Amino acid sequence: MNSRALTYVLAAAALLGLTALAFAVGRYPVSLGEIVSLLAAKLTGSTHTLPANVETVVMQVRGPRVLAALVVGAALAAAGTAYQGMFRNPLVSPDILGVSTGAALGAVLGIFLSLNVLMIQLLAFAGGLAAVGLVYWIGSRLRGHDPLLALVLTGVVIGTLLGSVIALLKYLADPYNQLPAITYWLLGSLASISPRDLSVAAPLALLGLAPMLLLRWRMNLLALPDDEARALGVDTRKLRLVVIAAATLMTAAAVAVSGVIGWIGLLVPHAARMLVGPDFGRLLPLAMLLGAAFLLAVDTLCRTIATIEVPPGVLTALIGTPFFLWLFALSRRSW
Amino acid sequence: MRLWVVIASLFTEVSSAQAPAVDTSGREIRPPAKVERVYAAGPPASVLVFAIAPDKLTGWTRAMRPNEAQFFAERYAQLPELGRLTGRGNTANVEVVLKAKTDLIVDVGSTGGTLASLASQVQEQTKIPYALFDGRIEATPAALRSLGRLMGNEAEAEKLAVWYENELRDIKQRVARVSSHPLVYYGRGTSGLQTGGKGSINIEVLEILGARNAAAEARAGLVTVSFEQVILWDPEVILTTDPNYWASVWSDQRWRSVKAVAAKRVYLSPHLPFGWFDFPPGANRLLGVWWAGKLLYPQAFDVDLRAKVAEFHRLFYHREPSAAQLDAMLGEPGVLPK
Amino acid sequence: MLKVESLAFGFPGRTIGRDVSFSLGDGEVMCVLGPNGGGKTTLFRTVLGLLAKHSGSIALEGQSIETLSRSEIAKLIGYVPQGHSGYFAYTVRDFVLMGRTAHLGIFSSPSKKDFDVADRALASLGMAQLAERPITEVSGGERQLALVARALAQEPRLLVLDEPTASLDFGNQVRVLERIAALARTGISILFSSHDPDHAFLCAQRALLLAEGRALEIGAPREVIRADTLQRLYGVSVQVLPLAGGGHTCLPAIGH
Questions:
Q1: Which of A53, A111, A115 lies nearest to residue B257, judging by beta carbons?
Q2: How far is CA B305 from CA A185, B267, B310, in A?
Q3: Residue A108's domain is classified under what CATH number?
């Protein structure tokens, strides 16, 4: 038990350190002292003597971006963890029921129609929810099949269908203007996170996280065959519905503001499981910590290593996969 | 000089089959003796072909919307939609191109490796000569002349080429007189965080004007940058092609601290019927050079923009824009300083 | 404790069994015998409320099963299914703890009391030393016993075990049967199925012979398990031999 508590403490400390570091670095030079005095002034309500640009960078640009990285990373990791347990499959990502593809379709449609940022985000959010709603509705109507299998297959089918609509829109889009915008959105990025984005996405993500955290012990029973879980007293259908709704809400909110950032929902749950085992009570909080830290680290790199922005999805794959293989080689237990 | 060109063109028309010409990609093109129907494979090509001989254009790559069609004579605005046949994603059906009894396929843009080989492939496939021309602004006069020769419209092409060269010369002279170069940032996309690095075709207009591109240190091509980077560069002028971004920049806290926004020097490029600034990347961008020049160097570029626009439309779109149309174009919010 | 009357059971649209009636008192052990595909598992799943019954009634402690919620049923019946392909490496203790779910609030995690119950269940089966091992790393027999421990953690009044000795070696089979007998002595009713009629003789007070969904006979093992009923049930020739000391055993008549 002690080594587990130590793992949490280390993870939380690493996260705090990483957050402080993320605040301190960036293309625009701001010293740690300036940040501290700015935050102190904000907290106490007093005035400060720092130039306006510094305040803009810290409060409007970097601050929201760092916090958004934490929220999105935690949300994607939590959703991935929940789904991997629920579907009893370590290869599952948060997008298995189509939330990212649905959100992507919404956003691509918005770009295709030359709408403004807010509308594009709204369409993305709505698209994600609608896609999963459709998958769940169809999947639960398929009687006579294992409910999980029905969901997964429906998710794959609908995801492919939505993906082909996205492909069609990309094809019809103006190649000089809309197509690059679509490509960049699909690559995912936290570059244009605004305080407003954060103030909407964070509460939504928390709204999804709350039921999951509250039910985290009970979610362990979804790892058992349906009959067994029901015999132990769990209404599996209702529990699955809550988990899917919570995971979808979190992921749709995250994808709406950050685009599609892959690998976090797939890799981080594994890493966390290798450290503390499959019990959700311990797994979920750690996965959130690790997810937040991972995306923050990646995003900080993305915005500092070059003049131009590197898409985070590229870095999560480049960094995540070898690290994960190394972790896998070290561990001796099964999932 | 002009006399010789005219005589030379008489001679070439007399010959029964055209001598092979070489397009900007270096490939040999053998057009038929009489070229009556020309398929323009992309919007920059449409501009050139239409300018030289509007009656020979078989169609547009995309059907004209009403706000674009208003600048053309009706019979031209109603030409059929044939789709694109360029390297950037084809929507054209090759059979349709064949069915339209095309004598010559023309494309304007990049002339490098892949696109040249794609052009050769289509040429092999359809047996229709496929000519590829350089789309850079400064290469336009040469492209006009070569295309004119291929189409059998040397005279018209020469007229346009000479006019274009004069314009470019005038621009160069004015640029030489400029003493102070403000730092310019080109913000693309709804967030304004995409921009063109040094040498990128997207900011060719700025490079002709010798403007200081804020994003010059970024690699060539379209790139995404972060807010912090833009705030660090602190451009004095921002040019954009996205109306959503232009509208949002005034109320967005994060852009407030940038010099250009504080000084209200954020401008939106007109886009009808063909964009002035970035896309389509063709001869149409000459207007963008005048427009941006006037915004960046008002003293050196003390020109009558209205007159320039009217003249360009007359020559390239074969229709003089009405006063109301000019008012609408130049009066749109963000196009000119208040 | 359990009263089943004229039960018809099966899958949606397909009735597998009919007219099954029996009752089970406190501390009674009943063994269900029958060939593969005869409906044993389906009967059990129906009794547990995992499958909707087609007609008839099932009453637990006098209450009709339709009026009980899943967690109320879970507090009364513990289910030990056949085999378990564990995928995630929960420790044996965490695995057994899952049995406490019915006693926990929806948002609760197990408390010390729950840990104690789980540990006691493990200890009563001689598995205390395996508590920290991942369930994926224990032997088949140990896993089966872990399933029993989990069911015991529910603190049920009735245990339903579906072929608990299938795929166990002889020694483990004997151990499981011993536990069943011991549990019955503590007052828990036991309903279990087996592929071996001897098991009924060894630890059951009553036997139910189930063939093609119908109860051939119900009664004390020595009365209902006879050569003719076994012939009807399995289609093979079996002798039922009395043993010195009072028991019986089955001996298949394999020709030499």
A1: A53
A2: 37, 15, 8
A3: 1.10.3470.10
Based on the domain organization, do B197 and B320 belong to the same domain?
A: yes
Cα A1 from Cα A269, distance rounded (Å): 20
**Residue ending a domain, choose from B116, B150, B172:** B172
Q: Report how many Cβ contacts below 8 Å link chain A to chain C.
A: 89
Tally of domains in chain A? 1
| Cβ–Cβ gap C81/A223 under 8 Å | no
Collect all residues from B whose CB is shorter than 8 A from any CB in A.
Answer: 84, 88-89, 91, 188-191, 193-194, 197, 215, 217-219, 222-229, 231-232, 234, 241, 243-244, 247-248, 252-254, 256-257, 278-281
> In tens digits, what is the pLDDT along chain B, a chain of 338 residues?
455 444 544 444 443 445 666 777 777 788 888 999 999 998 999 999 999 999 999 999 989 999 999 999 999 999 998 888 765 556 667 777 888 788 999 999 877 777 788 888 888 888 889 999 998 999 999 999 999 999 999 999 999 999 999 999 999 999 999 999 999 999 998 999 999 999 888 999 999 999 999 999 988 888 999 999 999 999 999 999 999 999 999 999 899 889 999 999 999 999 999 999 998 999 999 999 999 999 999 999 999 999 999 999 999 999 999 999 999 999 999 999 97
Whole-prediction pTM: 0.88
Are residue B207 and residue B184 in the same domain, yes or no? Answer: yes
User: Which residue from A minimizes the CA distance to C41?
Assistant: A227
- Confirm whether the ipTM is greater than 0.85: yes
Residue B240 maps to a domain: yes
Residues in chain B with CB shorter than 8 Å from the CB of A179 are: 88-89
Contact A28 B88 (CB under 8 A): no
Query: What is the domain range of residue C131?
Result: 85-155
Number of folded domains that form chain B: 2
Domain endpoint, select from B172, B203, B238: B172
